[in-house]
Amino acid sequence: MSSSKPISLLTFSLFFFLFLNAAIAADPLYHFCFNKENYTANSPFGANLNELLSRLSVKVPPTGFGVSTTGQGDSQVNGLGLCRGDVSTEDCKTCTVEAGKELQSRCPYNKGAVIWYDNCLLKYSDKNFFGQIDSTNRFYMWNVKDVDQDPKSFDSKVKELLSSLSEKASATSKLYSTGELVLGTGPDPKLYGLAQCTRDLKGIDCKKCLDDAISELPNFSSGKRGGRVVGGSCYVRYELYPIVEDQKI
């Protein structure tokens, strides 16, 4: 686990996961206002940001991913949006539009911000970050309940599944993969996983991002029934129940 992450953030993630299933689906998972610089009201940067968010709300839904840049010089804004690989065009549109509104509400006048939902993420910055792994904006979530089996054996299975999904995701055009692994008999016979990257990354960088995220899981979710590492460029997740619709067939 990165030592730069505040304990308060991890504590928030822990308690949030407890109430995740009871939460409204449209609620954000988390957000960061990560730029130390601000812009002023009615400034060119603000106008360009509004234009950027409008463009992304149109550009992202058809394929589930989009990047855009508006303005020039100090007023330039760069942004991207990503929807989870199984999310419909309609739900992707809804999530992207809501994410834009929430970012401006939660990070007013900030020149760099990112927000995550179950269905999508949205990020913008005055810096050109396309094609670069975002290893700074990251948070963690886990289930507080322990598994019924040997923790070390379970952790090994989690790594096996997610590592295979990292390999598959990084080799696909969508940089997205889901899968499952049979654990054996018992109340939880299968382990389910998901891995996804933002599509501005190259395949090799996607795999690095995912593998780094997977390596962090044992630091906080060892022997736990579910866990996620969620970042600005990629995320991984495992559960003992289906995560996406195609895992329920």
UniProtKB/TrEMBL annotation:
Annotated InterPro entries: CRR_secretory_protein, GNK2, GNK2_sf
Organism domain of life: Eukaryota
Keywords assigned: Repeat, Secreted, Signal
Repeat in keyword set: yes
Alphabetized PROSITE patterns for the sequence: GNK2
Sequence ranges assigned to domain Gnk2-homologous in this UniProt record: 27-129, 135-243
Record bears the keyword Repeat: yes
Signal peptide as annotated in the record: 1-25
GO CC annotations, alphabetized: extracellular region
Pfam families cross-referenced by the UniProt entry: Stress-antifung
Subcellular location(s) per record: Secreted
Recorded family membership: Belongs to the cysteine-rich repeat secretory protein family.
Protein name stated in the entry: Gnk2-homologous domain-containing protein
Organism: Morus notabilis
